Amino acid sequence: MTRSVYFFGNGTADGTRDMKVTLGGKGANLAEMTNLGVPVPPGFTIAADQCVAYLEHGGISDALRAEVRDALARLEDVSGKRFGDPANPLLVSVRSGASVSMPGMMETILNLGLNDETVEGLSRASGNPRFAYDSYRRFLQMYADVVLGVSIHRFEQLLATKRLTTGAASDSDLSAEALRSLVKEYQQLVRAVTGADFPMDPQVQLWGAIEAVWHSWTLKKAVDYRKVNGIPHTLGTGVNIVSMVFGNMGDDSGTGVAFTRDPSTGERRFYGEFLVNAQGEDVVAGIRTPLHIDEMARLLPGAYEQLLDTQARLEQHFRDMQDIEFTVERGTLYLLQTRTGKRTTAAALRIALDMVDEGLITQREAVRRLQPNQLDQLLHRVIASTAHATPIAVGLPASPGAASGIVVFDPDAAEQRHLKGEQVILVREETTPEDFHGIVAARAVLTARGGMTSHAAVVARGMGKCAIVGCTALEISNEHRSMCIGDHVVAEGDWITLDGGTGRVFLGDLPTQPSEVMRVINGVLPQADAPTYQGFATLMGWADAHRRLKVRANADTPRDARVARNFGAEGIGLCRTEHMFFEGDRITAMREMIIARDEGGRRRALEKLLPMQRADFEGIFQAMDGFPVTIRLLDPPLHEFLPHGGEESFLLAQSLGLARQELARIVSALRETNPMLGHRGCRLGVVYPEITEMQARAIFEAAVRAFRRGIDVRPEIMVPLVSDVSELRHQRAIIEQAAEQVMGVMGERVPYLIGTMIELPRAALTADEIAHQADFFSFGTNDLTQTTFGLSRDDAGRFLPQYLEAGLLADDPFQVLDAKGVGKLVKWAVRDARDVKAHLKVGICGEHGGDPRSVTFCHEAGLDYVSCSPYRVPVARLAAAHAALAAANAPA
Ligand code: PEP
Ligand code: MG
Q1: Ligand 1 contacts CB of residue 556 (under 6 A)
Q2: Which pLDDT does position 661 carry in this prediction?
Q3: What is the C-alpha to C-alpha distance for residues 399 and 458, in angstroms, rounded to an integer?
């Protein structure tokens, strides 16, 4: 029989940190801390697979009931208290904890075990009736809300009325008597709403709570969170049942959360917040703005010393920055949780580099600690230094980035306005997990209360979204849908701008400027003045030492090529030449070529385009000096270049000396029912060879010119949308002829390659034949996905979301390479082609080249390089390093 319940307490535990999949992160680390001798209240964890089984089949097995009974008996022994004992009751917390951290997404119940009898026992044992009844009313409302489905707001109304009728300024001013009568009112409310009495039997309470935690795995907020963070729905959550310790026993008690290093900057200093005389969730929920952890040294000196020592031990042991939760009960410290702390990317870089210096981790570990997609955050914009605006308020800089938007005060409205295409900023007193969909919809989040560890801060940081929290100057009136900040009144729909890096809030829509890293990349800030850039460059250097895949960029202009190079691109994997034809007066020449009645007319128009193309290519060769540049021949259907009626058509007809009807006739003749599968790609070059010839000449002339200027040029000419080797043979002959002609006339030879895109299933399936005519392959996985699925790239957005929602597809195949189907074609093509040409160079240039999971696939499939947008180049470099390190660590 496999076991399902794992005990911890009295210095030993059944579990360890390595059992996260079984116990969930919280349970595994509670066990680990117990084994380490860190003060943790005793308890036990129900394994996550029990959640999965329960949700699948319903019901609770006798075996599980027996295991829980035994664990509870052990807990009673260790704590010296009895569950349901009126004299000295054992009280427990029941909390969720999955193997992947999902802050605040699932339910927690505290003080379980209290009833009309045990509350008296607690009152006597603590000598503090007020505390006992406060704990009881908290338990009643939490349990009724989570397990019995009675809205928390109804309890809050009763609480508010009680404050009014007794003249109490705050909850903590309510007397024991007032709380005692409040408890009665709470119980009546439960009876009125549910038609049954609040359960007094602690066993019934316990199982109700356990089932509620299991159910909470399926709550909308939890499902949404998993979707956004790519967490599998099949994990399930562990349930942790831990004996209670109380931070609300008076001024010698308290509770808090802390990070072993600063989660915003990564600075090595103990960083946290706490509240005196408060219980559990008060700090994270942001209900009261907490005190800085340094204050604890003054208020609870003994516990603070112990906490400092413990946090250092935990960091040394886990060898990573920890996010800890603690409670002090009458001067005694207890740790309730430790986990790897979420952090900004700048902090992640600094922490990883510092820990290598401190000898805590290796360079390899540092590389693996940074998630490729996290690098995006370093490129976030900040408010322009030219904005010269004065902030109207300053809050805590919880998550970086600068964002402007209209103020919206509730999450549903945020979602709706976002769907209408508006940029919104969600402004809340504080956020709770219920607000998750609103945070997803918003560009940024601003809260009046809560600290750096509040829900809004943690969630926004995790999403790389700008957030400012604890901005106490905000006075929000939900009734008037407005807020006052000093003398300013901001109504719903007004624009504000947030600077999540500094915590400043501004009126209006302020201009933003590139981040530190972007300014270095753009050459406007010296590296010496850019510490974050330096950290980034060091870590990327380490990553490069491990990867096998080369990383190139998709870039169409010399400017993009320079940016790409500064990001570490090792060449261009795709230059889409058609983008060059839209600029300035080029489009006119292009249209002239398309409209031309015969080859002569086309050639005349192409002659005008040639020098423009040549200049573009020369600029790109220069920017990529020493690296290969893959230039793709014209790809889109010609129809895309023509105006579709209106003023533009009129002007074009005029400039070409055509009647408007004649132009309309030509445009209409070019229209296709299915243009993506129509006259495009190499089919253009087959029907109009002069287009291929002009482009090839422009490339070779540019190459020779650049070569003469001392530039190391490596052109690679790429033929798009080939489905049969004959097409490539046909185009190859034209390109080779142009090469001979240009190099003959110019008297200089430059090396070059001719290859093709593999972006149709038939090309992949006949890769061995095509390889005979190709010097390289590049997988165009945008089209290959489109044609393999028979799924239009341009229309899929209308129904793909429903597929993802319903779980018919795990990921959007245009974002994450479909390894099973499209990937199989890729693997077959690589294998068959290399049977013919063992060293054929193979890359990928679809959007997938910048997606970390797809990069891993490319590594495993034996590709030579990936190519992606310039801004994704660092992501791809790091992902390629991760793939290589993972493969090196994989068991043989
Ligand atoms: C592709 O199809 O993957 C590709 C890179 O080409 P495009 O996106 O221009 O069709
Ligand atoms: Mg394509």
Answers
A1: no
A2: 87
A3: 8
- Mutual angle of helices 301-318 and 20-36, in 10-degree steps: 130
Whether 861 and 844 have beta carbons less than 8 Å apart is answered as: no
Instruction: Cite the active site residues.
Output: 455, 845
Mapping DSSP to helix (H, G, I), strand (E, B) and coil, where does residue 243 land? strand
Q: Are strands 5-9 and 43-46 parallel, antiparallel or unpaired?
A: antiparallel
- For residue 554, CA distances in Å to 136, 345, 575, 842, 882 come to 62, 25, 6, 15, 22
- The finding on whether 849 has its CB within 6 A of some atom of ligand 1 is no
Smallest CA separation from ligand 1 atom 10, residue: 783
- Of 868, 21, 849, 102, the C-alpha closest to 455 is 102
The Cα 228–Cα 854 span in angstroms is 18
Pairing of strands 393-394, 504-507: antiparallel
Q: How far is the CA of 782 from the centre of ligand 2 (A)?
A: 6
- Give the pLDDT confidence score for residue 584 in this predicted structure: 72
Beta strand residue intervals within 478-595, DSSP E: 482-485, 488-491, 495-499, 504-507, 512-513, 550-554, 572-576
What class, spelled out in words, does domain 248-320+328-342 have in CATH? Answer: alpha beta
Residues with a beta carbon under 5 angstroms from ion ligand 2 = 759, 780, 783
Which atom from ligand 1 is nearest to the alpha carbon of 845?
A: 5
* Residue 233: DSSP 8-state: T
CA-nearest residue for atom 8, ligand 1, is 782
Q: Is 759 a pocket residue for ligand 1 (Cβ < 6 Å)?
A: yes
Q: What is the position in ligand 1's atom list of the atom closest to the CA of 576? A: 9
- What CATH number belongs to 547-575+600-636+675-887? 3.20.20.60
Distance CA 863, CA 843 (A): 6
CB 855 within 8 A of CB 867: no
Q: How far is the CA of 863 from the centre of ligand 2 (A)?
A: 18
Q: Ligand 1: does its nearest atom lie under 6 Å from the Cβ of 635?
A: yes
Per-residue pLDDT at 622? 97
Q: b or e along 721-741 (b: 16 or more beta carbons within 10 Å of the residue's beta carbon)? A: bbbebebbebbbebbeebbee
Mean pLDDT of successive 10-residue stretches along the chain, which has 892 residues: 91 95 96 97 97 93 96 96 93 94 78 96 92 94 94 91 89 90 97 97 97 91 77 92 92 93 92 87 61 93 96 97 95 95 90 97 96 86 80 85 94 95 94 85 91 73 81 87 91 94 90 90 93 95 97 93 94 92 82 90 94 94 97 92 80 83 86 92 97 97 98 98 98 98 97 98 98 98 96 82 80 92 98 98 95 97 96 95 91 62
Q: Tell me the longest C-alpha to C-alpha distance in the chain.
A: 104
Two tokens, residue 583: 């600029």
State residue 288's pLDDT score: 64
Evaluate: CB of 540 within 6 angstroms of ligand 1: no
* CATH of 380-513 given 3.10.20.30, 3.30.428.10, 3.50.30.10, 3.60.21.10: 3.50.30.10
* Number of C-beta neighbours around residue 161 at 10 A: 12
Residue 403 phi/psi, 5-degree rounding, is: -150, 140
- Superfamily designation of domain 1-115+201-244: ATP-grasp fold, A domain (3.30.1490.20)
pLDDT at 667: 85
Residue 547: the pLDDT is 97
Residue type, 712: D
Residue 889 C-alpha from the chain's centroid: 25
Spell out the domain ranges in the chain. 1-115+201-244, 248-320+328-342, 380-513, 547-575+600-636+675-887
196 phi-psi bin (left φ>0, alpha ψ -120 to 50, beta other): beta
Residue written as token pair 């210096």: 357
